[in-house]
Structure formats: structure tokens, C-alpha cells
Amino acid sequence: MKLDDTDRKLLAHLQHDGKASIQTLADAAGLSTSPCWRRIKRLEDEGVIRGYVARLDPKALGLGALAYVFVSLVDHSDDTLAAFGQLVDQEARIVECESVTGACDFLLKVAARDPEDLEAFLKRGMLAGGLVRVSQTHFVLRQAKTRSPWPLLSD
Question: Which residues form a coiled coil (predicted)?
């Protein structure tokens, strides 16, 4: 989908305030409310806007340990990939999963209560299934930038 400057204004505003009213968004984009609503609806229908969520503070939820886990699978068979995908989908501690190039197959972002909770998850939840050949865990010491808006580049 091709985005114009008005779409980018709306998306930029929504990335900073997902609860903004249609009137606020219309004002930010220089539109009246009806055309603004139609544009947002089109962006939703086209899949540019995937949904709206509340950003929560993991520490306030008792999640004091955050780690990136690099994972290499035992093989790349359809069964192994499907089983690993199911593990990722079912495990709430895995908050992000990317298939990557390089020395490993996947990069997981994992949140846990504390280092012991993370260790228990790695041993019982991830490594016990026999899907993972090797993993390497990197604890996050401090988050310098936890969320940034996606860049809205023009052509």
C-alpha cells in the first residue's frame, strides 16, 4: 500500500497515542473527522494498522528479568519447525520471536520474574523438548530505548 503524507501524519500520531480521538487525529492531519475516519479504516483494512494495545511496564507486572535467547534447532524439518512454532505460541514468557540469519535460527525475547524463573523456563520449557540443538542467553542489564515508533519513510 502506498502511503501519502496525510497517512504518515495519522500513523505517526497513532504510534504515540493509540487512544487519540478521531477529532484529535483529524486536527493533526489537517482533515475533517469523516475523511480522517475513512483513512484510518482503510489503513486498518489494508493491514497497515494491525491493532491497538496498551503498553505495560514489565517490572510493575513482576517481570524483573529480560533476556535475548539465540536458538539453533536440531534440524529444519517441517515437524521440528512446527513444534518449535507451537512452543513459541504457547509460552507467555516469549514475548518476541524472529527467524534470523547467521549462526542461529531464531532470536527470542524472553521475560521472566527473575533469573531463576528464566533458567527454569529454559531447562523445562525450551530445552527439554529436544528441539533445540544449542542456545545462548544474553541478559538485558538496562533498557536504553524500549519502544520507538516505526519510521514512516516517504518515497
Answer: none
For the entire predicted model, the pTM comes to 0.85
Q: Which three cell numbers mark 3?
A: 502511503
Q: What is the DSSP letter of 62?
A: T
CA-CA-CA-CA dihedral for 110, 84, 90, 146, to nearest 10: 30
Pairing of strands 94-99, 106-112: antiparallel
Query: pLDDT band at 149, cuts 50/70/90?
Result: confident
What is the grid cell recorded at 111?
Answer: 521475560
* pLDDT tens-digit map of 67-113: 999 999 999 999 999 999 999 999 999 999 999 999 999 999 999 99
Place of cell 534447532: 73
Residue spans of the domains in the chain: they are 5-45, 59-139
Q: Residue 127 burial (CB < 10 Å; 0-12/13-18/19+)?
A: middle
Instruction: Determine whether domain 5-45 maps to CATH 1.10.10.10.
Output: yes
Pull the grid cell for residue 48. Answer: 497497515
